[in-house]
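hiii, so i know i said id send this last week but things got crazy w the move. better late than never?? heres the sequnce for the chain we talked about at the cafe, plus the structure i predicted for it. fair warning i was half asleep when i ran it
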Amino acid sequence: MPGKADWFASGLPKEGKLASIPTIGEAARRDVPTCGLRDKVGFARDQAQKAGWDRCVVVNKERVVLGVLREAEWATHPESSVETVMRNGPATFRPNEPVAKLAEQMRQRGATSILVTTPDGRLIGLLNRKDAKRIAGTA
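okay and structure toks below
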């Protein structure tokens, strides 16, 4: 039976002492571009670049994260399918994680961004390290 941890991990509203601590789910940018497995690399690249992003998150119809395309993958033939060039199974984090904790982990690992998903893998958004540092007050 799901409990409070699942509630918070799903990014649902919270109350009490922990409600004032900023979480990555609240801080993640929801406008990260997405594409599907059958989309063409050139299409995904063009859509992401038009929106000012350097990546496109590969999702299925339920918005479950399957992979990611970055600039290195965009250098492939633009008519290739996303499925053939994407980075499979990127690391994801649950939305209830405190921003300060993840900002430090990102700094230690040299990560510039992280994907935030629900426990069942549905995309919530992407958190950039600079945003995490600013929200955590360590910028």
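btw The CA atoms of residues 59 and 66 lie 5 Å apart. thought thatd interest u
miss u guys!!
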